[in-house]
Amino acid sequence: MVKKLYLAIIICLTFSIPTLADDIGFKYYEKGLYDKAFKIWTKEIKQGNKEAMYNMGLLYYFGQGVDQDLNLAFKYCKKAALKGSARAQNNIAFMHMKGIGTKKSYIRAYAWSLIAIENGYNSHGIRDDARVNLTPAMLSDANRLSTKINKEIQDE
User: Fold this and answer.
1) Contact in structure between 81 and 92 (CB atoms under 8 Å)
2) 43-54: per-residue pLDDT in tens?
């Protein structure tokens, strides 16, 4: 009986979680039709879709179908990160670590990597690389910042 219940829960979760295969914008992206992906994701962003925000950030990061704009890439990834996208949280940590599209900050890189890890993303490398550059006082600041950011995140 318990096995059947677990199976039913897994089946329900599998079909209720949107996948990349369901993402029309991603299908266009895979084909190199970046302008069409851009249009789809623009509409989805207006509806609050965090994955569309993340994907738009990647378009601007790599300059695919748009002029490369690392500041806009950061902006879109941060919006997705604050909506609970662990992938975007990882990217924000990386961008802070390297100073891409934003000011370099080991404190912010560490804080965002902790959040991404808490949400199931493997950001341990970023966390460890940032940690090496932090004094004990800075580490304390990073932990407080992580807690503050976590309160701002709007998980869907």
Assistant:
1) yes
2) 999 999 999 999
